[in-house]
Amino acid sequence: MASGKKKKIKNQNFFDYTLLFVVIFLIIFGLVMMYSSSTYDAASDHNGDSAFYLRRQLFATVLGVFVMAATILIDYHIWERFAFPGLLISFVLVILVLTPLGIEANGARRWIGIGPLSLQPAEVVKIEIILFCAVLINKVNKKYITTIKGMAAILLVPVIFALMLWKITSNLSSAIIVAGIAVVMLFVADSDYSKYIIAALLVIALAAIVIYVATHWEGDSFRLKRIETWLDPESDPSDKGFQTLQALYAIGSGGIFGKGLGASMQKLGFLPEAQNDMIFSIICEELGLFGALAVILLFVLLIWRCMVIANNAKDLFGAMLVVGVMAHFAIQVILNIAVVTNTMPNTGISLPFISYGGTSEMFLMAEIGLVLNVSRQIRLRDAL
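Request: output the structure for the sequence above.
Response:
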């Protein structure tokens, strides 16, 4: 009787509740921190309405819950047929930024709007590149992937979209993420890691050359000035180094356990984009090193659960979908924290589920829905 029950359990489908609970906690925590960091700016910019940003984020979160539920319930194989039409849709959306539908904010046109609704095409491109690369890697011959020609064929479309995001929307961070997602997916699918190690060393060497040029160049290049300010924020404390310095002040003043939820001083008009790109510094100020490490550990747990699901996925397409989502979260979290802590130059990038941004919230929840859908089709006998 006991053995029969054990056999029955092993034939059941798996569902990663750990991943779901981590995501739910991050979403709730994100709403709390986003409200805490945005009340001053919201009240100042929107006629005393301190909950302005919270309501908009909450609306996007509710929509995101329905989107995530749909992607959990709909078989992920269905999305395979939308991979190539999705490229055309993504291309059109990026181009629309240049039309009157484009919305300019903070000196950049990165959104398109219809009435009260707005959409950031970069978020559509990210999930589309995950889907496209998963389909392509699943369909091509495995030996073809290991060749230079095969690598170039798979990376061609992601690189084109990365360049479009960079040049058309001035969104370098999203361009890096799109290219990074494709590289990570190809790296996982390819059994020959040596060429990736060589490529990584070349990138590091190139970065060192750029940094050297930035520190010795006497011209007025905007990009080189940004790198120079990154190396020494105090050289331009009232302009390009201002945001970085204010973020570092917030981090340093938080100490081990922070000043307490809602007690940040830097969010009171000192730190630009406190509820958006720089929200991690407010977490450090209000919750201290303890809170910051807790958030990082939650993201590590999320990425680990994605690895477990990818390793046990029933087919290569599902595994690649999960790897793409995992790469997206890992790259974006690392870049955000690196920017906030001045480990890399400021590129303007949000922290998943925590920073303000409705489009990002909905598409990130859609990606998690895809991962959970893949997990639903894992048999317990395979996962145990």
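The longest strand covers residues 108-114.
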